[in-house]
């Protein structure tokens, strides 16, 4: 698979003039830039479609682990649903001070290392440690910005990393043998978030970490290759703000546009587990080189796991910060197979029947 210059994994099916696509194009447009007044903003939560959600205190079983992973006590989380989108949950930046840096650092420095899989593997000789090999050149590029003719660097070309069961983008499937150990910290984070939101026994088995530049998009798609639809997709956003479109089971459903900002967590379950979604735009920061507030915070709160404290990251953060000035990271965590079931059988036959018509193109395509 060739890495696209601009990250467009866009749907090119014949019925392309569908509502989802129309909205995608509208938000993607540069000139004129779209009006953003209809984009749902959970920060101000003014839209009448927004429904506040109460966490069931019975689900808060291990707030100390959540704290160690960098999250506020769930009683402080601001959780929302959206009218007409059953199973969708939005948690507005529930992180403790300074704790997002840890996850950003993991996504940049550690998760893209071998044996995990990245889009760069097929690009060239194979890169063992993308950050280590790519950062010096990237830094030089950024310091010389203005010379637009300069070719993009290796780090600019990093588009995704897969973890756990590695999604095969060519065959468009997971395979039981394409597996490397899922990172323990991310598994803990996902299972604790899932448990708190009422999804006990969640198994984080696979993740796609997406890296977006300021000109990147992710075309409309449904994540339907997992074999257990009864388990949610949990999405963690860091860095620059995205406009996220969440539609319905077909592309004829008018999608809802919302901002996904640094620190926000989103869950797609129930009806929205198989909904079309995509990212038509990353918003440029108000001032060039501006980091989201949460990434400027220095942490050091009590009860946070030692490895998450900035002490161990001080030197490296300066580098990560430079990169995050022009980047958005999203991690989507998935449970691929139901507990006790193998790869042979889909565990939710009911959902299978209601699955949307799939075209080859409606899945991830590289856009190249
Ligand atoms: O970047 C996002 O918010 C969405 C990512 C996504 O949909 C995916 O990786 O399947
Ligand atoms: Fe997705």
TrEMBL record:
The record's listing under Pfam families reads:
2OG-FeII_Oxy_2
Q: What is its main location?
A: nucleus
Where in the cell does this protein reside? Nucleus
Q: Which keywords does the record carry?
A: Dioxygenase, DNA damage, DNA repair, Iron, Lyase, Metal-binding, Multifunctional enzyme, Nucleus, Oxidoreductase, RNA repair, Transcription, Transcription regulation, Translation regulation
The terms describing its cellular component in GO are: cytoplasm; nucleus
Q: Which GO terms describe its biological process?
A: DNA repair; oxidative RNA demethylation; positive regulation of gene expression, epigenetic; regulation of translational initiation by tRNA modification; RNA repair
How does the annotation summarize its subunit structure? Monomer. Interacts with DNAJB6.
The entry's protein name is Nucleic acid dioxygenase ALKBH1
Instruction: State the species of origin.
Output: Branchiostoma belcheri
Taxonomy-wise, where does this protein's organism fall, top ranks first?
Eukaryota, Metazoa, Chordata, Cephalochordata, Leptocardii
